[in-house]
Specification:
Blueprint (H helix, E strand, L loop, with lengths): L1 H21 L16 H12 L14 E9 L5 H6 L12 H11 L4 E4 L8 H16 L10 E9 L11 E6 L12 E2 L12 H10 L4 H5 L1 H9 L19 E2 L3 H11 L3 E6 L29 E6 L2 E2 L10 E2 L5 E2 L10 H15 L4 H17 L38 H6 L15 E4 L17 H4 L10 H5 L20 H4 L2 H4 L8 E6 L4 H9 L3 E4 L5 E8 L2 E4 L3 E4 L4 E7 L2 E3 L5 H7 L1 H8 L6 E5 L2 E9 L13 E9 L7 E6 L3 H4 L3 E15 L6 E3 L5 E4 L15 E10 L2 E5 L2 H6 L1
Amino acid sequence: MKRHIATRLTAAALAAAVLAACSPEPRGRGDIAGERLQEAVVSEREARYVAAVPDPAEPLAGQSQILFGDLHVHTTFSPDAFIMSLPLTGGSGLHPPADACDFARYCAALDFWSINDHAEGITPRRWAETRQSIRECNASAGDPANPDMVSFLGWEWSQVATDPAKHYGHKNVIFLDTEDDQVPARAIAAPRERLAQAPIGRAAQLMMSLADFENRDFYLGIQSYYDEIADTPVCPKGVDTRDLPANCLEVADDPRELFTKLDEWGYDSIVIPHGNSWGMNTPATTTLDKQLTREQHDPKRQILFEVYSGHGNSEEYRRWRAAVKEDDGGLICPEPTDDYLPCCYRAGQIIRQRCEASGESAEECQLRDFEARQNFVDAGNSGHLTVPGQSVVDWLNCGTCPDCFNEPMDHRPAATAQYALAISGFDDAQDPLRFRFGLIGSSDNHRGQPGTGYKEVRRKFMTEAFGSPEDGRAARQQRDTREPLPMSEAIDGNSVGLVSARNMERQNSFWLTGGLAAIHASGRDRNAIWSSLKRREVYATSGDRLLLWFDLLHGEKRHPMGSELSLAESPVFRVSAMGAFKQMPGCPDYAHSGLGDARLESLCGGECYNPSSERHVIDRIEIVRIQPQERGDEDVADLISDPWKVFQCDPEPMGCTVEFSDEDFVAGERETIYYARAIQETTAMINAANLRCEYDAQGRCIEVDPCYGDFRTPADEDCLAPAQQRAWSSPIFVDFQSRQEQEEK
């Protein structure tokens, strides 16, 4: 035993010595290869839009253009992106900020994008490199008054807690300006206790470098990457952010503190919540109510909501929950319903089946069933680990929303966009507080690839699918190798490692290519784009570039999506939508000449945004109506009408236009929110069927065929399924005002 311990210590010491001697210098921001696009390319994009304007003769309609962007992009400056890029686990290597710039311009053909690496890993050096790279990307865009692309600077505040009362989720922060004297000196992080600890030990780093010798510098650089974070001291608390030293890691514990620090800097910024209903990070009983207070919400900055990304769709509300509170505040597992199977309940079923197969009595197996349910609930987001030897197929389709569009894994309904728009904050009963969110889509890509949703190809390249391509040690480590015992194990979710706690193996069936943010803007320049974002004249898409207009018509005025107004009569609306261009394979000529074939292949995988002249048709337009709470005891489900109206469209390539009114608005005498969904014809999308259930005659999922990230699903299998790409308008907020009130005003 002593010799074995000594051998292990010697091996660890040897690995540490080798890593210390061989660790390469920290990687920088990279070099931007592509220059500004040819003027003809940009002009051709604008011409395609002008030809699609529903009524160019109408005031305002012809004075704006639709631009597409991605306001949620990670490079390997983010710690999770860095680890996901490991070649031995299917990653494609380092992708610094320069790669994101080239990808956005030449692969995805975006009009704007922002960098949003996790602030928890942005050391002073990385923040300086990020600022410089964004400025270089903008410099290569040409005339600032008419650039081919605008790049915004930002970070992600990535707060996670196992306690729902302390969980606030992730928020992207983006800034109008990029110069050093016009942006914060530091990124502002959320607290993360284990962030500076490398998830791969020194001995494993050395073994990886030997197993993949060609990429040895990558593995030998893991320790120096995390040492740089560990060597950055945390800034002291209680000091004005402008008075803190530049070389420390600044932390904001909750949104209130984040907003306070942004106020102290005083620079123009927008804060965008995202991934809110993604159950991998979000505790089961989390709701957005605790954030709708005058302390935890900043209505000046927090004006957009990321409704769709490569992590799934956070739009749709449902009554069911993954766990429910008892009167004493404790959590228990709910019973299943026709449209929802709680994973805690499924844990009990798995254990009961094993128990019965082992020959135990029915009474004993029932007790183990109940115990397994409770153990799962008590373990929080690590509940799957309470079932020893579990695998993805054991869980069937638990935790999913079968009638939702491209939902995230373990959907949390009380953290969705619809829930956010329906609730009110009653800390001041005379002046209820409400969220006023515009809706955007983004990619949340972690490979330096803004706007990956332009084609549904190459799942292992265009999504976050993550896993060893071969059945080697790295692949086996991602699976539960414990014996499948006929009893549950109680675990402390707080003590589980970050990767295993999140059931990454199952998540691979839910990774999507990602969405886009679309804006109606008066021009292509930075200020025009920023102005559109600030007035919420924005909409989200699921990746395809649908065109969407949503207006309230009042007299001779047109109030676009994002507007707030008061009316004494029934509101009248008009929606116009047009399908996205069908894509041709490969990349356009300008991309080949701009990046060169080698970089085009390595960055874009040989596939770029490459539109044909033919459009997809719009299948239908749906209207969602939400009447926000006027009392705290109003059931949110009763306030959301989804869909409220549905309009079937003729299969016309030039799109679909509908008009409607709300004849019940005056009688209701309450504020009402409206937004539109444009639904495109059916096409194939990666992971649209997520776990690919086989259903019985009663509609129950009886078997699944997961889309794995590792070798069990072939690398060239894209896991395509039929789905209908869509666009979500930002809401129009209409308050009721009696005619007498209008006259008095």
